[in-house]
Design brief:
Elements lengths: L3 H10 L4 H8 L3 H8 L7 H10 L4 H5 L15 E3 L6 E4 L9 E7 L4 E3 L8 E8 L1 E6 L3 E6 L3 E5 L3 E5 L6 E8 L4
Antiparallel strand pairs: 1-2, 2-3, 3-10, 4-9, 5-8, 5-10, 6-7, 6-9
Helix pairs in contact: 2-3, 2-4
Length: about 180
């Protein structure tokens, strides 16, 4: 597994020293130096810890070619949203990266209770048309209309709903994704 250049480049982007990375990943700087110089191949467990500290998806390090980064409007993929019976339309070809943007249309009166995600940390919604209602813990309820956005910690989400009599479309992003 040759990952040295990608790791070094990302570490430098973050302004981290080998020693800092080693400390945060609970590895030795000598071992990390050998990994960055492709002298040793790290275990998946070690690579996963490194990727987490560098805030990049493990998939990105294991992929030799990420493929075409463009998603054309007529070529989007609809995927089931966990076990909810709902589909989301992906706006990225990378399902395993840190950020997952998707498009969703909610029918009038539709309500979707939050599914607790162990890994998700942040969510961001932007309303394209219509209106949606976001209910967070502590009885915080926000009605978002066209052009409005909201950003919150995922564990706070209780429900997303369309309380109106017309369809609503929005874009959502979450990090890291869980599909």
């Amino acid at each position: 597994m040759i990952v040295g250049d990608a790791l070094r480049r990302r570490r430098n982007e973050l302004g981290m020293t080998l020693r800092q990375l080693a400390e945060e990943a609970d590895l030795t700087s000598g071992f990390l130096s050998q990994v960055e110089n492709d002298r040793v191949s790290p275990s998946l467990k070690s690579l996963s810890r490194i990727a987490e500290v560098l805030r990049i998806p493990l998939f990105q390090l294991l992929s030799t070619h990420a493929g075409n980064p463009v998603v054309r409007s007529g070529e989007r993929t609809a995927v089931p949203w966990m076990d909810t019976g709902v589909e989301a339309v992906l706006l990225t070809p990378y399902r395993d990266w840190q950020m997952l943007p998707f498009h969703r249309t909610m029918e009038p009166g539709e309500r979707l209770s939050a599914v607790r995600l162990e890994r998700a940390r942040e969510e961001w919604y932007y309303v394209l048309t219509g209106a949606i209602e976001i209910t967070l813990t502590d009885d915080e309820c926000f009605v978002l209309e066209e052009g409005d956005a909201i950003h919150f910690e995922s564990s706070r989400l209780q429900e997303v709903a369309n309380p109106t009599k017309k369809a609503a479309a929005f874009i959502c992003m979450m990090t890291p994704p869980q599909l």
